[in-house]
Amino acid sequence: MTPSLLLPARSSTNPESFAEYRARGGYDGLQRARTQGAAWLRGEVATSLLRGRGGASFPTARKWELAANATADQKFVVANGGEHEPGSDKDRHLVQRHPHAVIEGLALAGLATGASQGYLYLIEDMHGPRASAEQALREANDAGLLPFPIAIHLGPTTYVAGEETAALNAIEGKPAKPRKKPPFPGEAGLFGKPTTVNNTETLAHVAWIARNSGASFAAIGTAESKGTLLFTLPSGGDGVLRPGVYELPFGATYRQLLEGLGGGLQPGRTLRAILPALSCGFLPAQHLDVPIAYETLRPLGTSPGCGGIKLVTDATDTVAMTLGIAEFFMKEQCGQCPPCRMETNQFVHILKGVQNAKGPGYDDKLVKLAEFSRKKGFCSLIEMAAAPVTSALRVFAADFAKAAGPAALAND
Predict the structure, then answer these.
(1) Which of 8, 53, 317, 386 has the most CB atoms around its CB within 10 Å?
(2) Which CATH class is domain 228-313?
C-alpha cells in the first residue's frame, strides 16, 4: 500500500507543529520553487496529473495556466476549505491537523500563478481549523517563508458558500452566492482580478509534489487518477466500527477502505450500496472491489467526489434517505437561479408523494425534471442535487415501487 502523502502517522492528535513539518521536508518544495521558478512548478504539477479534490476533479495545471497567462496588475490565490457537505470532514481534518501543508501549497499556487495576496477560506464554525491555521501562519511568517501576505477569511455556514465563486463574493463582503461563468476566476475573480481557487486538499498535494516531483506523484494511482484521496467514513448505526478520515491511493477499493481501515459495518448490518459523496450516484455493494478511480467509477454512474461516504445497509430506508438528500439541496440552494429552485423543490414534492404511496409516474417525472434543469444554474448544484435522486431510482427501483403503492408495483 502507498505510504500516506497527506496524513503522516503521528502519536499526537494536536496540530502538526512547524518543527514537525520541517522535519519531514515541509517548505522544502516552496524554497525549491522560489529558486527554480514559476514555469518549473507549473510543469511539475502538469506532470503530476493532479486533479482538484473539491469534488469536481478539474485538472489543477489547466486552472493554474488560466491565471498565469492573464495580464493584470494584481492576482490572487485562494485555498478553499469551505466544507459544508454532510458526511465530509476531510478539509476540516486537514487544516486542523496539518495546516502547514495547506499553507505551503497555497504559497506555491501563488508563486505559480503570479499572485501577490492569498486567502485561506474557511467556514465560520471551523473553530479548530481556524486556530491551527492562525498559529501556522504566524510560524511560517516568523520564519520568513511566506512569499506574499496570507489572510484567513470566514464564510457563512451554508453549503453553497463553498462554491468557488461564492467564496470570492464572501471575501469581497458580498452575499456568498455563485457567479455566472464565464468569466472564470482565473480571468476575473476577486475584485475583478485573475484569481486561482484550489481546494485545501489539492494544495496539500501540491506541497508534496513540489518536494518530491510530479513524476513521483503520477506514479501513484491509476491511468487517469493520480495520487491519494482523503475519505470520511461515517459513524452511527449505518456507519463503520472505526469512523474517521482516512487516506488511500487511487486504485484501492472501497472494500479495503470500509473493512481494512474502517473495521467493517456495525454488527448485524449488511451493506447494500455506498454513496461515495452526497452529490454522486449510488454504487451497489457488488462493486466494492472495483478500483477507486474516475475512469472506473464513471461507467458505473458515479465518481469518488469529495470522499464523504454514506452507507446503505439492510436497515436503511432508501426512499427516506433519498428524500433527506433532496431536502438538504432544497434548503441549501441559494435561490438566485429559478431552474434550481424549481428542481430542488419539485424533487422533494415528488419524493414525498412516493413516500405517501401516491402511485406510478414518479420516476418519469424525476428523470424529466433532472434533464430539463441540467446546466441551467450559475453553479453545479443543479446537477449535484439530481445525481443521487436519479441514481436511487435505478439502484433501488424495487424499494421505490414498493413505497409508491400497489399501482406502482403493478407497473414495475
Answers:
(1) 53
(2) alpha beta
Q: How many CB atoms lie within 10 A of CB 371?
A: 10
Q: Which residues lie below 8 Å from residue 147, measured CB to CB, with a gap of 6+?
A: 30, 34, 107, 110, 111
Residue tagged 453545479 (cell numbers)? 380
CA distance linking residue 254 with residue 286, whole number of Å: 11
pLDDT at position 336 = 93
* pTM of the predicted protein model: 0.95
pLDDT 10s digits, 142-184: 999 999 999 999 999 999 999 999 999 999 999 999 999 999 9
Task: Measure the CA–CA gap between 345 and 329, rounded to whole angstroms.
Answer: 9
Q: Tens digits of per-residue pLDDT, 96-152?
A: 999 999 999 999 999 999 999 999 999 999 999 999 999 999 999 999 999 999 999
Q: Tell how far CA 234 is from the center of its chain.
A: 16
pLDDT tens digit sequence for 351-363: 999 999 987 889 9
| Average pLDDT for 239-259 | 97
The CATH fold of domain 18-218? Rossmann fold (3.40.50)
In this predicted model, what pLDDT tens digit does every residue of 292-320 receive, in sequence order?
A: 999 999 999 999 999 999 999 999 999 99
How many angstroms separate the CA atoms of 375 and 386, rounded? 11
Instruction: Kindly list the domain boundaries of the chain, sorted by start residue.
Output: 18-218, 228-313, 318-410
In whole angstroms, give the CA distance from residue 341 to residue 346.
Answer: 8
Angle at 281 between CA 387 and CA 199, to 5 degrees: 80
